[in-house]
Write a structure and sequence with these properties.
The protein is α+β, with helices and mostly antiparallel strands and 324 residues long. It is built from eleven helices and four strands, in the order ααααααααβββααβα.
Length: 324
C-alpha cells in the first residue's frame, strides 16, 4: 500500500507500522513462492516418471527408484501443504493480535492517542481508521493466499490433503478472510475494554480461539448432510471419494437408532433378536460430499461476519461511553 495515495489518519497508521507491514508482505510473498515452486517441482518429477515408460507394477530397479522418487516428492508436497494450511489457520489470530497490541492497545496504554484526537481527528474517526487499514489489507492479501493454496492443493500431480481436513478447510474459500476480519474486530474491542497491550492481546487470542473451535465443532451441522440408506443384510454402498463422514446407525422405519443399540453385543443370536425387537429395517450413513464445501464455507462465513459486525458495534459503543 503506497502512503502517497493515502491522506489523513490512514496515512499516519501506515507510516507508524510500515516496518511490520513490509515484513508481513515479504512473508506472504515468500509463502506464495514456496507453494508454487513446490507444485512446479513435484509436477516435474511426475512428468519425468510418466515419460520413463514405467508403471507401479514394474519391478525393475530403474522403475522402482523412479516410482519411489515420485512418491517421496508427493509426500513432501503434502507436508508443505499441511504446514501452509496450519499457517493460514493461525494467520487471522496473528492479525487480531497486531490490532489489539501495537495498533490500538499500545496507544491507549501510553496515551499517544490524545495527540491524534487533538488534531481534528474525532475518536470515532480514529477507531474507524484503526479498523479499516488492516481490514483493507486483509481483504486484498488473504484471498490471494487462499486462492494460491487452493490452486496448489488441486494440482493434478498433488497427493492431496482432504478438503475437510481442519487446517486445509480453514485455509481455503471465503472463511480465512472473514476470520481475519473477526479477529481485527475482537482485537479492537479487547484493546478498548482493557486498555493494556499484553492483556488485550491475551484476551484476543482466547476469544478468537474459542470462536474458531466452536465453529469447527459445529461445522458439519451448518448444512444438510447427504444420507445413504442401506436395507438390512444388504451390502453397504460405498461412499464417494473425498467425503466428510458425519455419522451412521440403524433405521427402524423412519426412526434412527445408534449402531451400539444392537451391534454392541458380540453374540450373533442376541444381535438378531435385538434387530427384530427394534424393528430395524436397515442402516444409514450421513456424510458431506466435496460439493458441500462451498455451502459449508458460505454459511460459516456469514456467521463469522455477523460476529465481526457485532464486535465492531460494541467497540464503537465502548469508545462513545468512555470518550463521549
Amino acid at each position: 500500500m503506497s502512503t502517497l495515495a493515502l491522506r489523513g489518519p490512514a496515512r499516519v497508521v501506515v507510516l507508524q507500522h510500515r516496518r511490520v507491514l513490509w515484513i508481513a508482505g515479504a512473508l506472504a510473498l515468500a509463502g506464495v513462492v514456496l507453494l508454487t515452486a513446490s507444485v512446479w517441482w513435484n509436477s516435474g518429477t511426475a512428468d519425468t516418471y510418466a515419460d520413463s515408460g514405467c508403471s507401479y507394477t514394474d519391478t525393475s530397479p530403474r522403475c522402482v527408484t523412479a516410482f519411489q522418487d515420485m512418491l517421496s516428492h508427493q509426500a513432501w508436497l503434502r507436508d508443505v501443504l499441511r504446514y501452509a494450511g496450519a499457517a493460514m489457520t493461525v494467520l487471522p489470530a496473528a492479525i487480531g493480535l497486531f490490532v489489539a497490541g501495537p495498533m490500538i492497545g499500545r496507544e491507549l496504554e501510553s496515551g499517544t492517542y490524545r495527540l491524534a484526537w487533538s488534531q481534528s481527528v474525532s475518536p470515532a474517526r480514529w477507531l474507524l481508521t484503526k479498523l479499516t487499514v488492516p481490514a483493507a489489507i486483509t481483504v486484498v492479501v488473504v484471498p490471494v493466499l487462499s486462492a494460491v493454496y487452493a490452486w496448489c492443493r488441486t494440482s493434478p500431480d498433488t497427493d492431496r490433503v482432504a478438503w475437510y481436513d481442519t487446517s486445509t478447510y480453514a485455509a481455503m474459500g471465503t472463511l480465512p478472510t472473514a476470520s481475519a476480519l473477526l479477529a481485527i474486530a475482537i482485537g479492537a474491542l479487547a484493546a478498548l475494554l482493557v486498555r493494556r497491550t499484553l492483556l488485550a492481546m491475551s484476551i484476543t487470542a482466547l476469544a478468537y480461539g474459542a470462536v474458531a473451535l466452536a465453529l469447527a465443532a459445529v461445522r458439519s451441522s451448518l448444512w444438510a448432510v447427504t444420507t445413504v440408506a442401506t436395507p438390512l443384510n444388504a451390502n453397504p454402498a460405498g461412499l464417494p471419494g473425498s467425503t466428510l463422514f458425519v455419522g451412521s446407525g440403524l433405521m427402524a422405519g423412519e426412526q434412527r437408532l445408534r449402531g451400539e443399540t444392537c451391534y454392541g453385543d458380540p453374540v450373533p443370536e442376541s444381535v438378531d433378536r435385538c434387530l427384530a425387537d427394534h424393528h430395524v429395517t436397515g442402516t444409514y450413513t450421513d456424510y458431506h460430499p466435496a460439493s458441500h464445501f462451498w455451502p459449508l464455507q458460505l454459511v460459516g462465513t456469514g456467521i463469522v461476519l455477523v460476529l465481526a459486525a457485532i464486535a465492531v458495534a460494541l467497540a464503537f459503543r465502548v469508545l462513545r461511553r468512555r470518550h463521549a
